[in-house]
Amino acid sequence: MRRGLLLLLVACASPRPEQPPPAQDRAERSRALFLQASRVFLHPRCVNCHPDGDSPHQGMEARLHDPPVLRGVADEGVVGMRCDSCHQEHNLELARVPGAPHWHLAPRFMAWEGKSPRQICEQMKDPQRNGSRTLSQIVEHNAHDKLVAWGWSPGHGREPAPGTQEELGKLVAAWVESGAECPAEGARP
Ligand code: HEC
Ligand code: HEC
Predict the structure, then answer these.
(1) Per-residue pLDDT tens for 75-100?
(2) Ligand 2 atom 2: the closest Cα is on which residue?
(3) I need a surface site. Which of 13, 31, 91, 112 has the fewest CB within 10 A?
(4) Cβ of 65 less than 6 Å from ligand 2
(5) Nearest protein CA to atom 40 of ligand 1, as residue
């Protein structure tokens, strides 16, 4: 009885440490953060360059690239039809050609076309399929990469990706900090 009272007193007197959110809430929050970020990943400004095939896509309706071009062995086009023979380091407004430094296709194993947020999440975490990146490098890529940045200044009246690149960087950082959980298969943003 006495001992119990003493413990109670000690417990009341000591300052309460910040209660971390229960693991369940944290995982739930992490999944919600990825879903929100996938509004950007699934936008045509990103998916057109992350196709599940050998050709990039164009426009909001993601039609096949016109003129027809192929990714080639290095995802940079083929002889005579290299991406950088048309795409410069910046948008060419008169010719309507979008541009950013080293314009080329995301490798096939980074395809997002036709994938669910969960599938994109799993592959973005997987060093075998994300270009051997750590999670902090994934945050960095989303926050600062120049091809990603183009998604918010696509030129020629194209619809930009949702939000801003800074917001995407923060979302992905918060997703990683909360445990990098992936949404359920059926979940959509
Ligand atoms: C012009 C083509 C192009 C566009 C547009 C593009 N990407 Fe990519 N993306 C690439 C290439 C190429 C790579 C591979 C780069 C590497 O591994 O060095 C890549 C890789 C990535 C990666 C790292 C690997 C992975 O899949 O996890 C992320 C994250 C990414 N892109 C996000 C985006 C987002 C977000 C957008 C739209 C706002 C976007 N990209 C638009 C070409 C593009
Ligand atoms: C012969 C010139 C030419 C070549 C070569 C070329 N492109 Fe394009 N590309 C264009 C033009 C022009 C547009 C704009 C079409 C439009 O918006 O009407 C375009 C648009 C795009 C878009 C669409 C952006 C969007 O979201 O609407 C992507 C992605 C793209 N190109 C990727 C590539 C990649 C990757 C390569 C190399 C494998 C490549 N292109 C090679 C001329 C070219």
Answers:
(1) 999 999 999 999 999 999 999 999 99
(2) 86
(3) 13
(4) yes
(5) 148
Total residue count of the chain as it appears in this document = 189
Ligand 2 pocket test target in 42, 58, 105 with most atoms within 8 Å of CB: 58
User: pTM higher than 0.85 for the full model?
Assistant: yes
- Measured in Å, residue 65 CA sits from the centre of ligand 2 at 6
Q: What is the DSSP string of 75-132?
A: SSEETTEEHHHH--SS-BTTTTB---TT--PPPGGG--TT--HHHHHHHHH-TTTTTS
Q: pLDDT tens-digit profile of 7-64?
A: 444 445 555 667 666 888 999 999 999 999 999 999 999 999 999 999 999 999 999 9
Burial of residue 149, with CB atoms counted within 10 A of its CB: 0-12 exposed, 13-18 middle, 19 or more buried? middle
